[in-house]
Amino acid sequence: MITQNHQLTCQKEQFSLPAHLHYINCATRGPFSRAAEEAGIEAIRRQTNPFGLTAAHFFAQPEPVRQLFSRLINNPDPDRIAIIPSVSYGMGVVARNLHRKPGIARGQEIVLLDAEFPSDVYAWDRVCAELGLTVRTVPMPTQLPRGAAWNERLLDAIGPQTALVVAPPTHWMYGIRVDLEAVARRTREVGAWLAIDGTQAVGAMPFDLEKIQPDALICAGYKWLMGPYSTGLAYYGEAFDNGVPLEESWMARLESDQFHKLSEYQPAYRPKAYRYNVGEQSHFIHMPMLEAALTQLLEWQPVRIEQYGRDLMAEAIPQLQAVGCGVEETSWRTHHLLGIWLPDSADPIGIQQALLANNVSISVRGRAIRVAPHVYNDADDVAVFVDTLVRQL
Fold this sequence. Notes:
This protein is of the alpha/beta class.
């Protein structure tokens, strides 16, 4: 057990990644740890013989996950956590309930950052048409450093005309930080809602829900939460109490755990976020895996995962800048997800292919390459990445 006071060391032995591969790409897909892998295998074994399965099993399965995720984000009320299949589902809940926001009026705006992830953009087309709203996109500055100016632009865009702000802790392509505490203060001042897509941050850097107080926090589970694909988690605050769910799951209703009474149809929902759970939320294979992953993240601690990434990339960044790459200034970049802008003469896809040929996995996003280290990476992974990239440039 790693204690609070100890610096996190490389955890490569906790994963089954082949030694010759340099996977610096957790922002695309987090690999399963051995603990999550074993939990999944054991869960499959249990499903080969469902004898003895009771109503209680259907409802008990997600509870540890709600509690662990609540600890991870400093949420005092696990009943506000919903099990969702995707970010699009979680944002769909926000869109479905936007008409219930006090003071909503035609002509108001939904504020987004430039080049946001598609699930955070497509969610608003229909509700904008229905409610007469418009989307206001905050453009990214054209020159580095971008972080301070982009955050200032975001705050300036939030005003009395704002109905909803959708923002991440860090931009999914470039790793530029968003000052969510400042954004949250501004949204409260103007009476807007704040929905956060925490997919590319929660689990890899500290997130304090009590300080930020968003109306919704939505996370896919397969990246920095290190869980299975098609399972995620969402927090819905008081603004969503008594709201409209995306689907009418029988499990969302009161007394739904009493199987002998299921045909005595119940109009009342379970409290708080339960109505927003995806149908079949029990996920008898996924939930044990996500529970194991969250348990491990809490042991590692996001603050130390963040510091591990910072230390791991510390020598690489000046080497990359020396060959013409652009990197955001330290105070406005994250350390688990780095956007590295290539020189204009470079071919991003060609560089990605050269890296793959040398067993290095990163992502290309626009004119930048996205490097996303985690605790299974070590100095050798970074050295192979830097040496290959420098040779190509």
